[in-house]
Design goal:
Blueprint: E1 3-8, H1 13-26, E2 31-37, H2 43-49, H3 54-68, E3 75-83, H4 91-101, E4 106-111, H5 126-142, H6 150-172, E5 187-188, E6 193-195, E7 205-206, H7 214-218, H8 221-232, H9 240-248, H10 254-266
Length: about 270
């Protein structure tokens, strides 16, 4: 099964609705996740996102996508909250508000990283993130799933394991599991440039220049040198997609994933 995740701030409601419906119709066998970004409630969210009225537009987009769930069963409607200095004190209230007011499939927690617009937004100790991550895990396990497939349950276990790795990485400030970016994962810019991840400014190539052949780029000497640099320098970060990728493609992590999968299936706390 193909999994496609599409994050959005929900600003352009009609465009988002039309694009999503086109995708759901054209690719009925793919499993989509449309992820709405909610960092706080009301004006606080507008302030964090530095965009007037964006919270109201986001709710309009939620309502439009919620209607589509009655027509299509090949997508989840999720919410993602990025924990930063500017919402860490009230972040659990945001999770509670979403649980009470929105009928979403999953509410995921992200850890701020990289180069945010305001640099001190990164001031979130691992201990505070761990507390919220524990709350999210307990609620994720308890929540009854609308779409019950083995693949989605495995994906949920992967995300739960990911948060454990992120906490450990942040606390120890070093690589916990080998990074496979540039080998098992890449990111692509709107101009077609390929990078190992969103944090490393090490261009591997350009998809257009390579004739849209990603394998050609991954086999290039440039890509091999970047992969070697990542391995030799034990590169590490808290980028959720990279951590999930590293967990999924390394057999040594399978016992950890199996334990989380058992909790998901048995709905233990």
């Amino acid at each position: 099964m193909q999994f496609v995740s599409i994050p959005t701030n929900g600003f352009f409601t009609e465009k988002i609705k039309a694009t999503c419906e086109t995708l759901f119709k054209k690719y009925p066998k793919a499993s989509f996740r449309i992820i709405l970004s909610i960092d706080a409630i009301g004006e606080r969210h507008n302030y964090i996102r530095d965009t007037k009225g964006i919270f109201g537009k986001l709710l309009n987009t939620y309502e439009a996508l919620d209607i589509l769930r009655k027509k299509y069963n090949n997508f989840n409607l999720d919410v993602s909250t990025t924990m930063s200095k500017y919402n860490k004190k009230d972040i659990l209230k945001t999770f509670e508000w979403v649980k009470k007011n929105l009928n979403i499939d999953n509410h995921v927690l992200a850890y701020i990283r990289g180069q945010p617009r305001v640099q001190d937004a990164l001031d979130v100790p691992a201990s505070e993130y761990k507390k919220v991550a524990k709350y999210v895990e307990e609620n994720t396990i308890k929540k009854e799933d609308r779409r019950k497939t083995l693949a989605l349950m495995m994906l949920k276990a992967l995300k739960l394991s990911m948060r454990d790795i992120i906490v450990e990485t942040k606390k120890k400030n070093k690589q916990i599991i080998p990074c496979l970016s540039g080998k098992k994962m890449v990111v692509m810019t709107e101009e077609g440039d390929i990078f190992p991840c969103e944090l490393l400014n090490m261009k591997l190539g350009n998809i257009r220049e390579a004739g849209y052949d990603i394998k050609k780029i991954l086999k290039s000497e440039k890509a091999k040198s970047v992969v070697k640099w990542i391995r030799d320098n034990k590169c590490f970060c808290t980028f959720e997609c990279a951590v999930q990728n590293n967990l999924a493609y390394n057999p040594v992590n399978f016992p950890r994933l199996a334990a989380k999968f058992a909790k998901v299936m048995l709905r233990k706390t």
